[in-house]
Backbone:
């Protein structure tokens, strides 16, 4: 049988992959994709806990699923703004590599 | 799903990376459905695999990214990032391994379907909709304002400078 821990492990691995992507990759677009992976890892563990907490009338806990809905909405808005920033930056500097964008660096 | 998730990070070509992300999201939607969260799974396919990935691919094509293949990898920074990610992974494994709750299987669902439609076995949308417009009405309206602000921000950022 599949246990709750299996889903949590998969979610943790997915989060670690996304985290490694943010740390290692130097392309802003790939970094945004890795951010999406991390948000999805959080969503997966939320849904797993929602399915795990079955209440007395035999239905899953839908509060977590409403929260996942909000997370997906915020992620969509965040990607739209992030990609607009990338396009504006590319127009200004002709690059999407974060090594070349160091104006704010101390 | 994890293989394609790793492929997102490993691929040098942004287009291949984005396509791996699509497959990863679709597999994640399948996992959601295996957890009886049909509404979330469908939203995942529609919003992520549909809308967000089209946005990513469109931007990649628009910017015509190809210069990255030439650049050599900064090995020290990469090793540092990988080490931090590995430490995080080991911590997650340790915590989940010690958790007693994590060893239990999922309890069975014995729900009676709320919506009166004949032959329907799932009423995800009904229940989530009730919760969303009842308990979470204010956050729902706030999220609408967030989307409005994001739209205005995206338009403002991407228009050309006209002084």
Residues:
């Amino acid at each position: 049988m599949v246990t709750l821990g299996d889903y949590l492990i998969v979610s943790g691995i997915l989060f670690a992959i996304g985290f490694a992507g943010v740390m290692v990759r130097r392309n802003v677009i790939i970094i945004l994709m890795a951010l999406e992976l991390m948000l999805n890892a959080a969503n997966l563990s939320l849904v797993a806990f929602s399915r795990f907490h079955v209440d007395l009338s035999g239905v899953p806990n839908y509060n977590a699923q409403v929260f996942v809905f909000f997370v997906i909405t915020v992620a969509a808005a965040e990607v739209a703004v992030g990609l607009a920033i990338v396009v504006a930056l590319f127009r200004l500097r002709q690059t999407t590599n974060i090594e070349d964008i160091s104006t704010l660096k101390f | 799903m994890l293989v394609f998730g790793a492929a997102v990070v490993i691929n040098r070509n942004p287009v291949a990376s984005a396509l791996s992300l699509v497959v990863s999201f679709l597999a994640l939607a399948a996992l959601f459905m295996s957890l009886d969260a049909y509404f979330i799974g469908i939203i995942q396919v529609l919003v992520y695999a549909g809308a967000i990935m089209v946005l990513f691919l469109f931007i990649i094509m628009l910017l015509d990214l190809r210069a990255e293949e030439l650049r050599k990898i900064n090995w020290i920074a990469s090793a540092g990032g990988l080490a931090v990610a590995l430490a995080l992974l080991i911590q997650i494994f340790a915590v989940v391994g010690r958790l007693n709750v994590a060893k239990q299987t999922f309890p069975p669902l014995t729900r009676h379907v709320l919506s009166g439609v004949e032959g329907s076995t799932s009423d995800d949308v009904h229940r989530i909709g009730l919760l969303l417009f009842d308990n979470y009405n204010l956050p729902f309206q706030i999220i609408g304002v967030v989307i409005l602000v994001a739209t205005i921000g995206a338009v403002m950022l991407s228009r050309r400078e006209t002084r």
